[in-house]
Specification:
The protein has 353 residues and is mostly helical. It contains 13 helices and 5 strands. The chain is globular. The structure holds fe (ii) ion (FE2) (2 copies).
């Protein structure tokens, strides 16, 4: 039987029956374990094969899947060696802050369900039937939102990162100003001016949002490596297995997010967009330009933001250590220099212009 390309929202939100639920630090979370003890992500019973089928269709039609280059992934700050150094000296607050920011940002992922999706069938020259694009509003965005922030009585990534943090660092005190500071910085970012006014704001906004989330999701790979390195190290973690496993479950759940987003954006790339003035523009030109802009921005601002966030309180936290000045010097000596790559890989549209 050929793979199905059309799904109902209920199908895209359905989960397989599992043998055992995932309980994280006393909180019931999504996903769980099959009879063989393997972790299974939530809401993937139909979503996983659906994404595979849409990708196969793209490839049969001769189109590739867009790829966010892993060399564009900025390192986490503080790096794992710096974080472990602080923990070995009993200085926990900086890492508690970093992990709390990660859990809050995961929870923010729920806003994807509020993304306005215009009438896409009207906006493309080619048909859209049986694509990921036609399922964004009917299952894909909702599944993504639930995975990030939890749903009803089940925790999601927000609660799973909290559980990893609290088990590894033994229920640390959480500074009360983490959320406020994060909100302060986010509200400073003005909405960018449209790059393609000719495709209309609703479509550009939706595509820009999706491209942004895709980049965040791909860059999260580095956060998982970093988190597992630190929290599964028995020298600094009180629950190396529990915390390391928890991060690996979150990592597994992110796969469908990366895959449906890159599939839908590639479907746009493979098509022609109707302009508001009655002309057309290749979808690839729009997607490449959006990806280029977002990657350039993310590789510059993200490392700087993380560094600023951490260093704001670092000196004060280090003061609690036995030899604060030596620790600060050792911390700085472990810093790994990083520069964003000179090219994002999405310059084609620009070069052609
Ligand atoms: Fe997530
Ligand atoms: Fe995600």
């Amino acid at each position: 039987m050929p793979p199905t390309l059309v799904y109902t929202p209920e199908q895209l939100l359905s989960s397989r029956v599992l043998a055992e639920p995932l309980i994280a630090n006393g909180v019931r979370c999504h996903g769980g374990f099959d009879a063989d003890g393997h972790y299974r992500s939530p809401r993937t019973l139909c979503r996983a094969p659906a994404i595979e089928a849409w990708q196969a269709q793209l490839s049969e039609e001769g189109h590739g899947l867009l790829e966010v280059p892993s060399r564009a992934m900025p390192p986490q700050y503080p790096n794992a060696a710096q974080a472990k150094l602080l923990l070995r000296h009993g200085v926990r607050e900086p890492l508690v802050r970093s992990l709390t920011i990660i859990s809050i940002v995961e929870g923010f992922g729920a806003i994807i369900r509020d993304v306005q999706v215009p009438d896409l069938e009207e906006l493309f020259v080619e048909p859209l039937s049986g694509t990921a694009l036609t399922h964004l509003q009917s299952g894909l965005f909702e599944a993504h939102a639930r995975d990030e922030s939890g749903y009803r009585d089940e925790g999601g990534h927000k609660q799973m990162w909290e559980a990893a943090r609290d088990s590894a660092l033994e229920n640390p005190h959480i500074p009360g100003d983490v959320l406020m500071r994060l909100m302060g910085r986010r509200s400073q970012g003005a909405r960018p001016a449209p790059v393609f006014p000719e495709i209309g704001q609703p479509l550009e906004r939706m595509l820009g949002f999706m491209a942004n989330v895709l980049v965040v999701e791909v860059f999260a790979e580095e956060t998982f490596r970093w988190g597992m390195d630190i929290l599964s190290d028995p020298e600094v973690s009180a629950a190396p297995e529990i915390a390391g496993d928890m991060i690996s479950y979150i990592q597994a759940d992110e796969k469908p997010h990366v895959e449906y987003l890159r599939t839908a954006l590639s479907e746009v790339s493979a098509r022609t967009i109707k302009t508001v003035e009655g002309g057309t523009i290749p979808g690839k030109q729009v997607i490449d330009a959006l990806m280029h802009r977002i990657l350039e921005q993310a590789t510059r601002t993200r490392p700087a933001d993380q560094r600023d966030d951490l260093r704001e309180n670092l000196a004060e936290s280090i003061r609690t250590a036995t030899h604060p000045s030596a620790l600060q010097d050792d911390f700085d000596a472990l810093e790994t220099p990083w520069a964003p790559p000179t090219r994002t890989g999405f310059e084609a549209a620009e070069d052609a212009a």
